[in-house]
Specification:
By secondary structure, the protein is an alpha/beta fold. The protein contains nine helices and nine strands. Helix 1 packs across helix 8, helix 3 runs parallel beside helix 4 and helix 4 packs parallel to helix 5.
Length: about 260
């Protein structure tokens, strides 16, 4: 086991399942102390039980990142217990609704979780990082923040906002020793997607859109988060990293064209 993050304290939102849990697992394997936030206490307890097998430095906090009063209560206490070195803003939600049918309530819910909640958590954590003149923040966006997808206007807008929030944070916080970057995954197989998407759907989607002919894995995304949190990326800030198997690189040729050319 590598110990790149021995002595580091990592705060992760949306950490109970999927990519957030994978990120927490990778940090735990490399010696980090973890503070995990999620609004689902049952999943959070289960995540802690598994992570306790890797490290005894796991603390969990069940609250909604849209709730500023909860942030004001918990973040100073978390930081006072042990200063946060790395913030991973992973929490997010999505729902598929055509643009003309998105209600104000649905719009606000997605924007509040994906963008406003990230802003509130980041501001609270970065104030303490600024006092110490060090820190790394890695935000979770999506390839949808760079390339629109039908039925997800609210989600697409929120993830595009995350990218610009990241760039602005990076510019404003660099002189305070804080680096801020953003990761944009494409189609990644998570426990949730595996429960929803049939093997037929996965094959049809990857055949049509992804040059690498497969979905990504949560571990492939988590590895990038660790790199961006490490000293190996010490001169990288304000950057957008896409993990999508080539989906955004350009139109994927059909099998007949590929066969003819190669």
């Amino acid at each position: 086991m590598d110990a790149r993050f021995e002595g580091k304290h990592v705060l992760i939102t949306g950490a109970a399942r999927g990519i957030g849990y994978a990120i927490a697992t990778h940090f735990a394997r490399e010696g980090a102390a973890l503070s995990l936030i999620d609004n689902h206490s049952g999943n959070l307890q289960q995540a802690k039980a598994e992570l306790d097998k890797l490290t005894k430095q796991v603390h969990i906090y069940a609250f909604d990142i849209r709730d500023k009063s909860s942030i004001d209560k918990h973040i100073p206490a978390i930081d006072a217990e042990r200063p946060v070195d790395i913030l991973v803003n992973n929490a997010g939600i999505a729902s598929e609704i055509p643009f003309l049918k998105i209600t104000e309530t649905a719009w606000k819910e997605v924007l509040d979780v994906n963008l406003t909640g990230m802003f509130l958590i980041s501001q609270a954590v970065c104030r303490s990082m600024a006092d110490r003149k060090r820190g790394a923040v890695i935000n979770m966006s999506s390839k949808n923040g760079m390339d629109a997808e039908f039925g997800y206007a609210h989600y697409n807008a929120s993830k595009a906002g995350v990218i610009m929030l990241t760039k602005t944070m990076a510019v404003e916080l660099a002189h305070l020793g804080i680096r801020v970057n953003v990761v944009c995954p494409g189609y990644i197989q998570t426990p949730m997607s595996e429960a929803i998407d049939s093997p037929t759907f996965v094959k049809e989607f990857t055949d049509r859109y992804i040059p690498m002919d497969r979905p990504g894995t949560v571990d492939e995304v988590a590895a990038l988060f660790l790199f961006l949190a490490s000293e190996e990326s010490s001169f990288i800030t304000g950057q957008t990293f896409v993990v999508d198997g080539g989906q955004l690189a350009g139109q994927k040729p059909g099998f007949s064209l590929r066969s003819k050319k190669f």
